[in-house]
Amino acid sequence: xxxxxxxxxxxxxxxxxxxxxxxxxxxxxxxxxxxxxxxxxxxxxxxxxxxxxxxxxxxxxxxxxxxxxxxxxxxxxxxxxxxxxxxxxxxxxxxxxxxxxxxxxxxxxxxxxxxxxxxxxxxxxxxxxxxxxxxxxxxxxxxxxxxxxxxxxxxxxxxxxxxxxxxxxxxxxxxxxxxxxxxxxxxxxxxxxxxxxxxxxxxxxxxxxxxxxxxxxxxxxxxxxxxxxxxxxxxxxxxxxxxxxxxxxxxxxxxxxxxxxxxxxxxxxxxxxxxxxxxxxxx
Amino acid sequence: xxxxxxxxxxxxxxxxxxxxxxxxxxxxxxxxxxxxxxxxxxxxxxxxxxxxxxxxxxxxxxxxxxxxxxxxxxxxxxxxxxxxxxxxxxxxxxxxxxxxxxxxxxxxxxxxxxxxxxxxxxxxxxxxxxxxxxxxxxxxxxxxxxxxxxxxxxxxxxxxxxxxxxxxxxxxxxxxxxxxxxxxxxxxxxxxxxxxxxxxxxxxxxxxxxxxxxxxxxxxxxxxxxxxxxxxxx
Lengths: 283, 234
Known about the structure:
The structure holds two protein chains of two kinds.
Chain A: H1 2-29, H2 36-53, H3 58-81, H4 88-110, E1 124-127, E2 130-133, H5 134-156, H6 158-168, H7 170-174, H8 180-205, H9 214-227, H10 232-252, H11 260-272
Antiparallel strand pairs in A: 1-2
Helix pairs in contact in A: 1-5, 1-8, 1-9, 1-10, 2-3, 2-4, 2-8, 3-8, 5-6, 5-8, 6-8, 9-10, 9-11
Chain B: E1 4-13, E2 16-26, E3 31-35, H1 42-49, E4 54-61, E5 64-65, H2 71-77, E6 79-82, H3 94-101, H4 109-119, H5 121-125, H6 136-148, E7 154-158, H7 166-183, E8 186-191, H8 194-200, E9 203-208, E10 211-216, H9 218-222, H10 225-231
Parallel strand pairs in B: 3-8, 3-9, 6-7, 7-8
Antiparallel strand pairs in B: 1-2, 1-4, 4-5, 9-10
Helix pairs in contact in B: 3-6
């Protein structure tokens, strides 16, 4: 039982980190960014390249991954989202195509075979009787730090408030002197950075492969749909619901059913509460 | 020199022209009103001044040419806007709505917040309330307060009385009077209710079908039988 609680808590922290960047774009940019997984994949590979292949310090590898993720988000906004503004379907199709292109680029550069990312912090610790790697523990702690920082940024800074304002009423934001384009650009860059940071931890939890971008997108979509648009706390809580659900199913029932109940949860929420458990109805 | 001068303004929604050669000017500290029926182009005129609608013509603020500038530039230049539908941020608190208004005037937050609370004591009492749960009158106060947080020199107020109870209309009118009297603001109000507009404005512009069809003081306009009948209930 304790093993389930500890593993659930750790997996949930990782899921929350992965979903946070996706939620930002979905809430503020109103875009279902299907290429979000590409940030995660590229983040993992950049970290692998810098810290394992080039032998740079891990912190440099992590910072490099975050910066490349932010740059990808910025470029995606400037080159795809902004020119296609107002055409949500075109944006979604374009972002999906971009993810597939990025997958091909990773195959070309790093090969098709999966790679093992060495633990960011090696070693094992026993927590409440459960064996836990320092790696996943570090991922969870880092998740909480990043999420707390994001929450403070969105709630307590002028740019954070402007991000909320743009998501709620773009004209209202504009007449307050906020440039919605600039705020969207910043949001895309932050989302890319969060995705890449999540990618480093996700790859160290699973493994690095050019196909690894698909699963985090599905997890992110599930968390945001169940949690609802625009709620950092909702995203955090639902990440825990889904994390614990998956760990419990694997431990108590059958590993093959791991994602099935998450999918059923999505359908249930869509039917019974389309705005999500913590979302608000749109005005 | 006029504080705000709009010359030959034409505004467009796609290919449809909503305003034709509209010219207005307002002096420092003066309050003027644009009156007209629904669809006359009043909101389009204010949206155009704010750079929200595609337009041609010229706009000068205190002698400075701000024609064609983006909305953010207009706000930084000193134009505040309280639109007809408020365009508030429904799931943010009153305080956070006001703080967004301070986006371009961060050094004046304390002073402006105190001024807003002085004008609208109710906003100070309810600063933690989400605006989605507020009455129309309170939202109008937040909308005006948010505009004031940007340290404007000119305030544009679009139909401030629409849908409000008579008591609240009185409160809003009293505040609008104080804006020019106490803060020295230049105010442009649009109204369908010409009598309300007359109680505040020194001069009126009548807008019909996207054209300015008459302009003058209340006395001057009331001499025109047709106008008096249409707008002043004579």
